[in-house]
Structure formats: C-alpha cells, structure tokens
Amino acid sequence: MRISLTALSCCKTPRRNPRLLFARHSSSTSADTEAAIAADPIAHFASFTPDRIRNFSIIAHIDHGKSTLADRLLELTGTITSDKDKPRILDKLKVEKERGITVKAQTASMFYTHPQTNKTYLLNLIDTPGHVLNQIAATFELDTSPENVLHVSAKTGLGVPAVLSKVVEAIPPPSNLGSANSDFKALLFDTWYDSYVGVVCLIAVHSGTLKKGQRITSYHTKNTYEVTQLGIMHPEQTPTPSLTAGQVGFLHLGMKTTRDAQIGDTFYSPTAAEAPTPFPGFKPAKSVVFAGAYPMDASEFPKMQDAIDRLTLNDASVAVSRETSNALGQGFRLGFLGTLHMDVFRQRLEEEHDSTVINTAPTVSYQVSYVDERKVVGLEAGGFEGRKVKWVRNPAEFPEPDDLSNVQGFYEPMVIGTLICPLEYVGGLMELCGSHRGEQMEYTVMDETRVLLKYKLPMAEILTDFYDQLKSRTQGYATFDYEECGYTPADLVKVNLLLNGKPVDALATIVHRSRSTPIAKEWVKRLKNVMDRQLIEIVIQASINGKVVSRETISALRKDVTAKLYGGDITRKMKLLEKQKAGKKRMKSVAGGIQLPQEAFLSLINGGDEGGKQKGKK
Fold first, then answer.
1. What does the UniProt keyword field contain (predicted)?
2. Backbone torsions φ then ψ of 488, nearest 5 degrees
3. Which of 19, 193, 295, 341 could form a disulfide with 337 if both were Cys (CB 3.0 to 4.6 A apart)?
4. Are residues 522 and 601 in the same domain?
C-alpha cells in the first residue's frame, strides 16, 4: 500500500487533454445557463428560439375536461398556484363560468423544464371551445395503437406530467420561420378590447424581433403604430423584453377603434425595403343561423352598436348588417354558427356591455330559384344543383304573394343529426325526429344500454324547441350533434302576424307549409296572452301568403264618460258617447299599425308570458 503511494508520488503528472477540459467547461457552462433560464425565463426570454418552442391545443368534445386539463398543466409548470376555489382559470368570461363551457379560445404560455435533459421549453397552449366529433361515435375507435395512449385524469392530476413530456418529445417546433435578425413580420390571430389600453392584439411572430418602442405597420389598414407594451399570456398579460421569431404574445398599439384590427392581418416593419407578402388570413366562417337584434330602448342603439363592434372584434364568425323594423326601429341582422353561438352572444351583450337586446325568431338561410331570372335582381350562382338562386336570410326578403308565380322552387338547408341515448328512450326520440320532418338514416345498437340514431333533418326544425324536447323526453341522458349536408327542395311559406290589419315585420317567419297553420294559430294565441288591453280594440291575425288563417281579438277598455252625469237630458249623455266613439276612431286610424310592446315581444319570442303574466280584464 505504501509502495504504491510512493510510486504514484514519484510518477510524473499526466498531461491533460485540452479538448476534454473544454468539453467539461462547456458542459458546466451549459448547465449554468440552463439553470439561469429555468430560474428566470422572462429575463432570458430571447433564449427561447424556435427549437425550444412547442405550440399545441387541447381538442375534445364539449364538457370532456379540456379546461380542467389546462389547469393541471398550468399548475405543474408553476404558471398558476393550485386553487380549488378558482377552477378553469382560462375560462375568463362570465358566461363561460356560468355555463361551464369554453366559449372563446384562450392562449397561455408556460415554461417547462424537461426532467431528462434539464432543458427549459416555452409551451404555448390554446384551450379551445368544445368540438363536435361525429365520427368517433360512429366508428367507436381511434386510429392509434393502445401503447401510444396516455392514461390521464385531469380532475386528480394522474398522468398529467407525462403529457408535458410527450408535448416536448412528440410535437415538432415551429417551422417555416424567418430569421430573428430579418425584418419583422407577424400574424394577428386574436384581438379583444380593454377599456384602459384599447385594442389588445395577439400575434404569432414569423420573422424578426420586436421590442417596446418600435413601430409596426398593418398591411390591411396601412396604419403605423408604436408598440407601447408587449409580452406573453402567462396566463395573464406578462411583459417580456422582446418577441422574436416563433414566439406568441400580445401587443398594445394604442388602437382606439375596433375597425383598425382585423383577424388574419399582417404586421410588418415599416423600415423594410419592401412590403412583405401578407399571410393568407383566415377563411371567413359561414353563418347558418340568422336573427334580428334590437335595443330594448331605441335611444340605446349607439351603445348597442358599440357593444356589437367590440364583441365581433374577437368573434369574427358573427356576420353583422344593419336593418330597420317598423315595430322595433333600428337594429342589426346577425349571423351565427348555431343556436348556442347566438344565445351566448346575446348573453355577452347583456352581461359584459349592459346592453339589453331583443332577438327576433331565428331563421336559416334559404334559397329561391325563379322561372324568369331576368325579372329578379340579386341572383347568385352556386345554388341547389348549380342553379342561380336568391338567398333569403330574413323573412322580409321572402317573395311577396304577387311574385310567387315566378318562383321555380324553394330550398332549405339540411343536417345529419347523430343522437345517442339509453335504450328505453328510443321510441320518444324517434317520435320527436319524425314530428320535426326527420328521415331516419341509421339505427345502431352500441351496447346493451345505448343506441345510436342518425336522422336527416331540416336545420330550421332544430333551431327552436328541439333541444328542450330532447332533454325532456330523455331526462337529459341523450346527446345530439349535427353536421350540414347541403340543400333540398321544400314547400316554404311566409307567416305574417298583423295588428289591426298592419303586418309586424319583426314577427314574420318562414316555415314549411305542413306546419304553417298550427304555428300561425299558436303565435296568435301567444300574442293575445302577452298583450294588455288598450283603449281601442286590437285585432290579431296571422296570414299565410296573404291569406288570413287565424284571428283573435282583444276588446277595448271602456272608460265610463257618463259617470259624472246624474240624470238630466239624455242628449248630453249621447253627445259624450259619440265624442268618445269619434276619439277612438281617430286613435285607431292613427295607430292602425300598433307597435307591439317590446316586453311582450321579447316574451313572445321566448315562447312564454312576460314574467308569468297572463292577460286579464282591466
């Protein structure tokens, strides 16, 4: 043992390999750098080059835990603290919290250090609204091997760490990007309005680097703005020193009007040698459900217009055009992706902007073809079977009775509905679909307890009470999804409601002839129940293509003008009665087109009596 030590002490010190020393030094430096990035990623934000970035979304059916999983991911990365009293942190809208659904896609950036490489990554998560996955229910299988499926419980957090590792390992970094040193170019993919800073823009940087104080130009408006603040959603707005190629973040540009921000716009550096090729933008969403929207008080129209402008700023799928109603005054014709979209938009108008709105009955987009096309303006190609057609999105655009002789045909949009329900409720669902002009396409027994039904249904038939009846007949145990499947010929008519012989345009609706008379009679009775008696007699009628099919009368209130008379000449009494009669006649001629009270109108559209009030004698 001693000899060995002596021998070792006598030996010459071995010469060290400089390459080995450099490798060890580099490894130590790299480890120190990674530790510094992990400790303060915001300060080292420029280090997150595209190879350190992963962009991903959570896509699943409605109410399947997407936002809950997003909460677990944010907690594991330290982006938020675990707070059971504040679930679904990315669901920021009041309507989202009330309904328990995600209405608007939200972006959140998080920093994640991979346990094996100790390398920190920037993960950009998009929590999307619920998606309708029709084909999964139909095929009962996914095109993947079982060993690639991660077993995760978003509620308990079981298996969630494996999701983060898989995101880094399986999802490629952003590609087809420009250099961080080249001219700045970015895509505007989301906006919203903030009462303090104006329009907030969410961008994806394609090339170059952007810092606070720099100026950028909008390709769409050609306006140039100074960047007053920038950063990432973490999950709230968190300032960063810069945004560079591959990164996603927010901008404050001092935009004061919503018209300056267009989703899909291209931002670029005004000092560039030439304007860049713009991004193709986003394909406009096709509206399938239309409804009129009017302020409860006509004086509130400017406020409502401003509220709609701000909401459509981050919901470009809503189509907006102005229209005027004889009964309700100035308003808007709004196009939506569906009835839920329409209901949520109305709720956001009321809750976020304190704008009380009257919605007319929803309708779909119909097509009309004509025998002599030369007599009709506004025809468009690409209709049913390639014909030239006129699009009817409003009952006011429906052909008048005098023009029906030139109509070749009407066409309505159809959907294929997929229903899954317990076996004991099949009969009720089949009856429901049949009563709504449905045509059965498929009947599949999924297992011992569940059945899948497929029906071809007119889209107009599922707009109003279909969902309510579906829940009622199945005690809430059925699911219903649908997808569009083109147009088909239909025998359509227009139902008008008249007050004292004058049509109320806002109450007109388009229905199938087979259901027109029952609907007309029901609406007349409903309208009678919600209207109060007035000093003149009110005649409520429903007409189909100009022919009256139903009538109800609200008798006039009678004021006893002779109450102050105590006997005397009968001619005095008759004079007072004749004067009252003449006054009512003048009132009736002036108010021949009685305007329906807005509260009663709202109650009629909602299918019930305002506040449970029933018409009574007064």
1. GTP-binding, Hydrolase, Membrane, Mitochondrion, Mitochondrion inner membrane, Nucleotide-binding, Protein biosynthesis
2. -145, 150
3. 341
4. yes
pLDDT tens profile 357-412? 888 888 899 999 999 988 888 888 888 888 999 999 889 899 988 889 999 999 99
Whole-number Å distance between alpha carbons of 223 and 236: 27
- Coil vs helix vs strand at 17: coil
Q: Note the pLDDT tens digit of each residue in 44-89.
A: 888 899 999 999 888 776 666 777 888 888 888 888 776 654 555 4
Amino acid at 7: A
CB distance 272 to 183 below 8 Å: yes
Domain range holding 505?
A: 493-612
- The DSSP secondary-structure symbol of 242 reads E
Could you tell me if 595 and 507 lie in one domain?
yes
* Chain CA centroid to CA 6, Å: 84
Q: What CATH number is associated with residue 518? A: 3.30.70.2570
Half-sphere exposure of 34 (CA within 13 A, CB side): 17
What is the DSSP pairing of strand 120-127 with strand 185-194? unpaired
Same domain, 384 and 486: yes
Confidence of residue 104 (pLDDT cuts 50, 70, 90): low
CA distances from 100 to 125, 349, 394, 405 (A): 20, 18, 32, 51
Q: Are residues 461 and 503 in the same domain?
A: no
- The set of long-range contacts for 279-284, using a CB threshold of 8 Å and a minimum separation of 24, is 279/187, 279/206, 282/189, 282/316, 284/316
* ω into 458 cis (within 30 of 0): no
Domain assignment present for 226? yes
The domain spanning residue 376 has which CATH number?
3.30.70.240
Q: Is residue 204 domain-resident?
A: yes
Rounded to an integer, what distance in angstroms lies between the CA atom of residue 246 and that of residue 51? 9
**In a shared domain, residues 355 and 370:** no
Please tell me the pTM assigned to this model.
0.65
97 occurs within a structural domain: yes
